[in-house]
Amino acid sequence: MSKNRFSFDLSRFTVGAANAWLLGIVALTATVAHGQTQTDPDTALRMLNAQQQQFEKGVVQVADNVFTAVGYHGANTSMIVGTDGVIIIDTLFGPSSAADAAEAFRQHSDKPVKAIIYTHSHGDHIGGASAFVGDAKPDIYATESFGSAEGVNKAVDPIKQKRNVRQFGRKLSPAESTNRGVAPAGTKDGDRGEGFLPPTVTVPNSGLKTTIAGIDIEFHISPGETDDAMFIWLPSEKVLFAGDNFYNSFPNLYAIRGTAYRDVLNWSESVGNMATLKPHVVVPGHTMPIAGEAAATAALQDYSDAIRSVYDQTVRGINAGKGPDQLAHEVELPEHLQDKPYLIQFYGTVPHAVRAIYCGLLGWYDGNPTTLNRLEPKIKAKKMAQLAGGTAELTAQMESALENQDYQWALELSDHVKWLDDADRKLARKTKIAALRGLAAREYNAPNRNYYLSYANELESGQLSNVWF
Q: Fewer CB atoms near the end CB (10 Å): N or C, the chain?
């Protein structure tokens, strides 16, 4: 079968292979403190650049009749070739990106689309369906709870949209952009959702086994990153489509754009269930597939174990009376999982997960009466200035922290200084901008890096002159 210029062998990305991506990533992480996502700027940039190989644009043949398009937008889309038609799993962000992938797929089959499957309802997986089907009207499969991916918090959509732009670095300049951790930067985003086609077939909560275009296919309900998720299993080909419950990065158990609590125990269980099938290939919702039964099964089991370990450690800490700030700095992956390339914190982070688990189980209050009714920010800032010996002295401490590249402390002090009526607020803003960019340069976690840079740019342009949050 001929392949277009964007096609390549899946074996390059087998976990056990001694390829440049795996060797480079593992070697670089040796310099990083476990549990943290800050390192020296050169290492951070090299890690992010190496991770880009995970979404190099192309069509990957994962079985004789199964193809996955990677890098055509943020997510993956896959095509299964059957006897009299094809099945499409996930459809990217909009019709323009989907059309590019569909054209690439047609190099491998020109059979009509018999079915489309949505693994879950995140927009980057459902927005381009129309580009695949033309005038045909295929069956479109989704779960009973399809559409619940973002929970019920529509009231805060305005701020979530702003934070989404920051997390993904959508307004960063080419010089500032690296990637999105599990996806390339600079994707085609102008037609978001314009190709969405609503589901016509509901997969029951008990799952579904059926045959489409001569292909035996199984639908397994698997809540995790979203409550409406499912994974797809091809028993004859031994290929598993994981959706966003697995990709080559520590999972985004909490997204800094703002999300309802993601039930991490369900997530861990869902990925563990995938591992029991011992797939020959696992196709993630983002990043390159993993080939080979041993490699694919180990990756899924490690992923499940990592999520469960973070949960268990957090719960033990909670029951020992520890608060989220302390636990976020204490919990880390077990030693045997710390060097796994598919668990490096390019997208999700352990500290973010710990805080989300804490809040999801107990709410905002950490049990310490000191924090039950905290001082309002302006009053606290005045008392901090008094402790420092006055506004001038507190400002000097802020400038010293920045000069010493103690960027987090500089940020925190700048947030105090900005509240003081007799302070140089322009200097506080300037310090905060510099500290944000200093932190960004050291970040290999893409959402953190993008958020720091985006926020700095908004501050510098005056968009956040009156409210710094």
A: C
